[in-house]
Specification:
The complex is a heterodimer of chains A (564) and B (469). Chain A is of the alpha/beta class. Chain A is built from 22 helices and 17 strands. Chain A has three domains: 31-64, no CATH class; 65-283, Alpha-Beta Complex (2-enoyl-CoA Hydratase, Chain A, domain 1), CATH 3.90.226; 321-563, Alpha-Beta Complex (2-enoyl-CoA Hydratase, Chain A, domain 1). Helices cover 41% and strands 17% of the residues of chain A. Chain B contains 17 helices and 22 strands. In chain B, the strands form six sheets. An eight-stranded antiparallel sheet of chain B has the order 13-12-9-10-11-14-21-19, with helices on both faces. A five-stranded parallel sheet of chain B has the order 3-2-1-4-5, sandwiched between helices. Chain B has a three-stranded antiparallel sheet with strand order 7-6-8, covered by helices on one side. In chain B, α1 links the parallel β1 (4-7) and β2 (27-33). By secondary structure, chain B is an alpha+beta fold. The chains are: A alpha/beta (564), B alpha+beta (469). The interface between A and B is medium-sized, with 25 and 28 residues.
C-alpha cells in the first residue's frame, strides 16, 4: 500500500499538480525567545508554562535557578521594600579586573550585589527575607554580602522580626581572598547574636549552595529547608574529584542526600514553599498561650480510631493477665503514635535530622498545633508491613533519632513551645553502629536535657515503652498511658532469661515485673491511664498542658525574681 | 489568505482537515510520530515531518517540535483538530505569540472556558441557565454541605480545572459529603494541580444536546442547529444525530438563542460547540463550551451543506460569516456512528493490530471519514476511534435505514470492532423512537451485547429475534 502512495505522489508531481506552491515558502523568524531548555532533562519548555509552573520543569521536576526579583515575588506578599544600602564597590586586595567584572555583573543580573534583603510579609506574617542571586558572580560572598547580612540581622533584632535567607552561592568570593573568608566568621557571629536574642532564622537552600556560604550562615538556620535536587556542598564536586581522584556517586551532595544525612529539616516543593514558610512563621508567632480545646479539629475522626481498636469481645469472666496486655501492646494492628498525633493535632510539619550524622526515620519530630497552640512533637514509628518495619528497625531508634529529638526540644525550649512525645518502641536499637555512635551517651544526654526543660512536657505511651530507649523520650512533667500499654526495664523475655535463664517463663515474668499501665499508676510512674480508643485523652491533654503552662510560668517568674 | 497550514493532529481528523485545505488550494504540512510514518495524513499532506516517538507526549503533544516544523516550513497557521493540543491554552498562546495563527479562539478564551466554575459564572451572567449549584469555587466542606442542602441531593462535586470525570464525585447523602469532598479535592490536586471544587445538582437521565456555532472575528455569531449525542457509554459518545428527534421547535429556538448568548459572552472566535443537558422536565442547562472542531461535526455538515473546517479557516484569516442565522437551513436528518477498534464483549478492551481487509460502504448520501486502509496498523498509543460512518436521509427513518445498510456493507478484518454494537443499537426501541437519554445505552447494554456478535463468525443465530425478520 505504501508503494501505491509513493507512485501516486510521483504521478501528481510529474503533472505539476501536487507540489506546485501558490507562493514561495517564506521561513518565519521569531525575534523573541519563547523556550527555555531544562538543564535537567534537556526538554524545551514554553516560557509561559515555565513561569506558571514557578520555573520548575513540568517534565522532570527540576527547580530552575531564578533571579532575585522573581524569588521575592514568589515568596513575599506584593508590597515589600528593599532595605539594603546602595552597594559601593570595595576592592580590599586590589584584584586586577575585579571592578569591571563587578560592574558587568550588576548589569547582567539586575541586582547590585549577590544578596538582597527586603522587608515584607508572607501571607500577612512580617519578615525580613534575603535572596542570593547566582547570576551575580555566582552568588559569591564578599565584604558587601557579609555587611548586608550583618545589618539585616541587626535590623531584625531591633524590629523583632524573623529572618529567611534563600541561599544560592558558589561560596566565598575569590576576588576578595582572605577578606571573604573573614565574612564567614562575621556573619556566623551575627546569626548567633540574633538567635540568642530569641530570633527565628530559616534558611532555604537552593541550587547551588556551596563553599563558604554552606560553611556559615546557610547551615545555621533554626530550620533549614531545601529545594528538591539542589546541590548543597562544602567542597564542590569538582574540587573533591580533583583532590581525591574519585568519581562521586549519583545524588551525592543533593538536597535529598543531605536530608538523609541529617543536615536538612525538610525538602519543600517550590509550589508549597510560600505556604510552608507562612505556616512556620505563624507557628513561631502564636496568637494564643493556651490549648483551646474547641480548636481541635476532628479530621482524623474518633470513629476511625474506634474502628482500629475494635477487637474481639473479651470474655468478662476471664481474668486479664499482664501478658495479655504485653501481646496487645505489641499488636501490629494497634493504634500508632502517628495516628494518635493526627487525632490530636493539626498543621503537622515534620522536621528532620540530627545535624551530625543522619536522620533516623524511627523517631519523627516537628511542629504541630494542639488546639491552636504550637507545640513540638516527637513520636516513634514501627512500620505497618515488613518492608517498612525493616527500614524502621522494628521501632528501635538509633542514637541520631534521640539527638534529633533533643535538637528539636532545644528549639522548643528556645521558642517556649510545649512538648508532646508519643512513644511505642521496644527499646533503643542494639547494634554495632548504634554503639559506635554512642547510644548510651545519646540517652544520657536526653535524660539530663529533658529534666532541665522549662517548657511543659507530656509523654503518652501508646504501646510498648522498652527500657532506656523509651525513658529517653519520657522524662516529662506528666506521663500518660493507654490502657494496654506497657512500660518496662527490658522485655519480659529478657527479664526471664536473666533471672531464670528461661525465656519461656515470659508470662510469669510479665506478672512479676509490674509493667501494665495500672501498675505504673500504683508505682507513681504514670499520671493517668486512658482507654485504647482514646476517650478523654484530648480533654485531659488540653487541661494538663494548660495547668503546666500556668504552673511553669509562675515558677519561671519566681526563678527570675530569685535571680534578680 | 493562508497559503500553508500545519495540521497538528493525526488520524481521521487530520485527513479531514487536509482534504478541505487541498480543496481550498492551501498547502498542508503534516506532523507524525514514528508509529505513524505510513499513516494516511502523512501521505495526503503536501509535506510531512516526523516529530517524535509513538507516545503522544513525545510527538503530537510536543509543542516545541510542532512549533519548529511550523516555523521552518513557513506555515501561516496551525489547525489543532480535536484532542491533542486543541484545547491547550498555552499552545494557542505560543502559536499566536510567534505571529502564526492558531485556528480557534485565543488562549485566554480557552483558559476562561477550561475553568469550569468560572464558565458557570460567565454563563449565569449572560443569562444562560446553568444547573443549580455553587457560585464559583467552594471555600470548604461546610459550604459544600450548605449548597447541597439548598439545591437538594444528589449533587456532583466537580473539579474546577476538571474534565474526563477526574476529581468528580457523586454525593447522594449529606453523610458522605465531607469524605467525598476531600477525596475529590485530592484527586483534582493530583490530576490538575488545582484542588478547587464546585458543586452542581445532578440532572438525572438527561439528553445531551449541543449546538454548533460559528463566530467570526467581528463577533458575528450563528448556530448551525443542534446535535443529539445522548447515545453514550461511560460519557463517550457512540452514535450522534441531528436534529434531535424530541426537541420541539420552541425548545430548539430558545436553546439556539441561549447558545448564541453563551458564545457571545466569552469573546469567541471560530467554530465551537455549546453543550447543554436537557432534563426530563424539559428544562435545559448549560454544561460547557468545546473550543474546537468536534468529532461529530460531519452530521451538521450533512444537513446544512456547510463545510465547518472551511469556515474555521476562513474565519481564522479574517473573513466574515457569509450567512446570517436566517440563511441556515436544516435539510433532512443525519446520523453518525463511531467505529472503534475495541471488543465490546470483552469489556470494550482496546483492539490494536493490523487491518487486513477494509471494505467501506458507499452509495447515496453516505460519507466515510477515516484514516485506515488495508495493511495499516492501529497503534495502542492513540484513540481507538478509526472510522466515522455518516449518513443523510430526507426523513429520520430513511437515515436510520441507510445507516443500517451502510454498516451491513462495512467490513473490517484483522481487529475487533464495535460495528455489531452500532448495528444492533439501530434496532433499539428507544433509538428508533428517539426517546433515549445518556444512560439508555448502558442500561440496555446487556441486551445489546447479547446480539452484538452478529458480524463475527457463526454467532448470528439469534439475530432474527430482534430484527423481527
Amino acid at each position: 500500500m505504501k508503494e501505491s502512495f509513493d507512485i501516486r505522489r510521483e504521478q501528481l508531481k510529474e503533472s505539476g499538480k501536487y507540489t506546485k506552491l501558490r507562493s514561495p515558502t517564506k521561513k518565519k523568524k521569531i525575534s523573541e525567545k519563547i523556550f527555555t531548555q531544562c538543564p535537567g532533562c534537556k526538554q524545551y519548555i514554553y516560557d509561559k508554562i515555565l513561569k506558571e509552573n514557578l520555573y520548575v520543569c513540568p517534565d522532570c521536576g527540576k527547580c530552575l535557578r531564578i533571579g532575585t526579583k522573581t524569588r521575592f515575588e514568589l515568596t513575599l506578599d506584593p508590597s515589600y521594600e528593599l532595605i539594603d544600602e546602595l552597594a559601593v564597590f570595595q576592592d580590599p586586595i586590589q584584584f586586577a579586573g575585579y571592578q569591571k567584572k563587578w560592574e558587568n555583573n550588576q548589569k547582567k543580573a539586575g541586582v547590585d550585589e549577590a544578596i538582597t534583603f527586603a522587608r515584607g510579609t508572607i501571607k500577612g506574617e512580617p519578615v525580613i527575607v534575603g535572596v542570593m542571586d547566582c547570576n551575580f558572580m555566582m552568588g559569591s560572598m564578599g565584604s558587601i554580602v557579609g555587611d548586608r547580612i550583618i545589618k539585616a540581622f541587626a535590623k531584625a533584632t531591633r524590629e523583632k522580626l524573623p529572618v529567611i535567607i534563600f541561599t544560592a552561592s558558589g561560596g566565598a568570593r575569590m576576588q576578595e581572598a582572605i577578606i571573604s573568608l573573614m565574612q564567614m566568621r562575621y556573619v556566623s557571629e551575627a546569626v548567633g547574636k540574633f538567635q540568642k536574642a530569641g530570633g527565628l532564622y530559616i534558611t532555604v537552600l537552593t541550587d547551588p549552595t556551596t563553599g563558604g556560604v554552606t560553611a556559615s550562615f546557610a547551615s545555621l538556620g533554626n530550620i533549614i529547608l531545601a529545594e528538591p535536587n539542589a546541590l548543597i556542598a562544602f567542597a564542590g564536586p569538582r574540587v573533591i574529584e580533583e583532590t581525591i581522584q574519585q568519581k562521586l556517586p549519583k545524588g551525592f551532595q543533593r538536597a535529598e542526600h543531605l536530608l538523609e544525612h541529617g543536615f536538612v529539616d525538610s525538602i519543600v516543593l517550590r509550589k508549597n514553599l510560600k505556604n510552608t514558610l507562612s505556616l512556620l512563621l505563624k507557628m513561631h508567632n502564636p496568637k494564643q498561650t493556651e490549648v483551646d480545646l474547641t480548636q481541635i479539629s476532628g479530621r482524623f475522626s474518633k470513629k476511625l480510631i474506634k474502628k482500629m481498636t475494635n477487637e474481639a469481645e473479651v470474655d468478662p469472666d476471664k481474668q486479664v493477665i499482664s501478658f495479655d496486655r504485653v501481646l496487645k501492646a505489641r499488636d501490629p494492628k494497634r493504634i500508632t503514635p502517628r495516628q494518635v498525633l493526627k487525632y490530636l493535632c493539626d498543621d503537622i510539619f515534620e522536621l528532620s535530622g540530627d545535624r551530625l550524622y543522619a536522620d533516623d526515620p524511627t523517631i519523627c519530630a516537628g511542629i504541630a498545633r494542639l488546639g491552636g497552640l504550637p507545640i513540638t512533637f516527637v513520636y516513634t514509628k514501627k512500620g505497618k508491613d515488613l518492608k517498612s518495619q525493616i527500614k524502621l528497625h522494628f521501632g528501635m531508634p538509633h542514637p541520631e533519632g534521640y539527638r534529633k529529638a533533643r535538637r528539636l526540644m532545644q528549639e522548643a525550649e528556645n521558642f517556649g513551645r510545649p512538648i508532646l512525645t508519643i512513644i511505642d518502641t521496644p527499646g533503643a536499637y542494639p547494634g554495632l553502629e548504634s554503639e559506635n555512635r554512642g547510644m548510651g551517651e545519646a540517652i544520657a544526654q536526653n535524660l539530663r536535657f529533658m529534666s532541665g526543660l522549662t517548657v511543659p512536657t507530656i509523654a503518652i505511651i501508646t504501646g510498648e515503652a522498652g527500657s532506656g530507649g523509651a525513658i529517653a523520650l519520657a522524662c516529662t512533667d506528666k506521663l500518660f498511658m493507654l490502657e494496654n500499654a506497657i512500660y518496662t526495664i527490658l522485655s519480659p523475655e529478657g527479664f526471664a532469661t536473666i533471672l531464670w535463664k528461661d525465656s519461656a517463663k515470659v508470662e510469669e515474668a510479665s506478672e512479676q515485673m509490674k509493667l501494665t499501665a495500672h501498675d505504673m499508676v500504683e508505682l507513681e510512674v504514670c499520671d493517668q491511664v486512658f482507654p485504647d480508643d482514646l476517650t478523654g485523652l484530648k480533654e485531659a491533654l488540653a487541661q494538663t498542658f494548660n495547668e503546666l503552662i500556668k504552673e511553669k510560668q509562675m515558677r519561671n517568674e519566681r526563678n527570675q525574681w530569685e535571680l534578680n | 489568505m493562508f497559503h500553508k497550514i500545519l495540521v497538528a493532529n493525526r488520524g481521521e481528523i487530520a485527513v479531514r482537515i487536509i482534504r478541505t485545505c487541498r480543496e481550498m488550494g492551501i498547502d498542508t504540512v503534516a506532523v507524525f510520530s514514528t508509529a505513524d510514518r505510513d499513516s494516511l495524513h502523512a501521505q495526503f499532506a503536501t509535506e510531512a515531518y516526523c516529530i517524535g516517538g509513538p507516545a503522544s507526549k513525545d510527538s503530537y503533544l510536543n509543542m516545541q517540535a510542532i512549533m519548529t516544523v511550523a516555523l521552518e516550513t513557513g506555515c501561516e497557521a496551525i489547525h489543532p483538530g480535536y484532542g491533542m493540543l486543541a484545547e491547550n491554552p498555552y499552545f494557542a498562546d505560543m502559536v499566536n505569540q510567534v505571529g502564526l495563527k492558531f485556528i480557534g479562539p485565543s488562549g485566554d478564551t480557552i483558559r476562561a472556558l477550561g475553568d469550569k466554575s468560572n464558565a458557570r459564572l460567565l454563563m449565569s451572567e449572560a443569562n444562560v441557565s446553568v444547573p443549580p449549584g455553587s457560585n464559583g469555587v467552594l471555600q470548604d466542606e461546610t459550604q459544600a454541605l450548605a449548597v447541597a442542602e439548598q439545591i437538594g441531593y444528589p449533587v456532583l462535586l466537580k473539579a474546577s480545572a476538571g474534565g474526563g470525570g477526574r476529581g468528580m464525585r457523586l454525593v447522594e447523602r449529606s453523610e458522605d459529603m465531607v469524605r467525598l469532598y476531600y477525596e475529590a479535592m485530592l484527586e483534582a490536586e493530583t490530576a490538575f494541580g488545582d484542588n478547587s471544587l464546585y458543586i452542581e445538582k445532578l440532572i438525572e437521565n438527561p439528553k445531551h444536546i449541543e449546538f454548533q456555532v460559528l463566530v467570526d472575528q467581528a463577533g458575528n455569531a450563528i448556530h448551525l442547529g443542534d446535535r443529539d449525542c445522548s447515545w453514550q457509554r461511560r460519557r463517550q459518545k457512540v452514535i450522534e444525530e441531528t436534529p434531535c428527534p424530541i426537541l420541539s421547535d420552541e425548545q430548539r429556538k430558545s436553546m439556539g438563542e441561549a447558545a448564541i448568548r453563551a458564545i457571545k459572552a466569552v469573546n469567541y472566535e471560530g467554530a465551537g460547540t455549546v453543550e447543554f443537558v436537557l432534563a426530563e422536565d424539559g428544562n435545559f442547562y448549560f454544561i460547557e463550551i468545546n473550543t474546537r472542531i468536534q468529532v461529530e461535526h460531519p452530521i451538521t455538515e450533512m444537513v446544512t451543506g456547510i463545510d465547518i473546517v472551511r469556515e474555521q479557516i476562513r474565519i481564522a484569516q479574517g473573513g466574515n460569516l457569509l450567512l446570517t442565522q436566517a440563511d441556515v437551513k436544516i435539510n433532512g436528518h443525519a446520523f453518525e456512528c463511531r467505529i472503534n477498534a475495541e471488543k465490546p464483549s470483552d469489556n470494550f478492551r482496546a483492539s490494536p493490530g493490523v487491518i487486513d481487509d477494509f471494505i467501506m460502504p458507499g452509495g447515496r448520501s453516505v460519507r466515510i471519514d477515516s484514516a485506515i486502509y488495508p495493511g495499516c496498523k492501529i497503534s495502542h498509543h492513540y484513540d481507538s476511534m478509526i472510522v466515522k460512518v455518516i449518513v443523510h436521509g430526507n426523513r429520520r427513518s430513511d437515515a436510520i435505514r441507510r445507516m443500517r445498510r451502510s454498516l451491513e456493507e462495512t467490513i473490517i478484518n484483522g481487529i475487533d470492532t464495535n460495528i455489531g454494537l452500532l448495528y444492533v443499537s439501530l434496532f433499539d426501541q428507544d433509538m428508533i423512537r428517539g426517546s433515549y437519554n445518556t444512560s439508555t445505552l448502558e442500561s440496555h447494554m446487556d441486551e445489546i451485547l447479547k446480539y452484538e456478535k452478529i458480524f463475527r463468525i457463526s454467532e448470528n443465530q439469534d439475530f432474527e429475534i430482534i430484527t423481527g425478520n
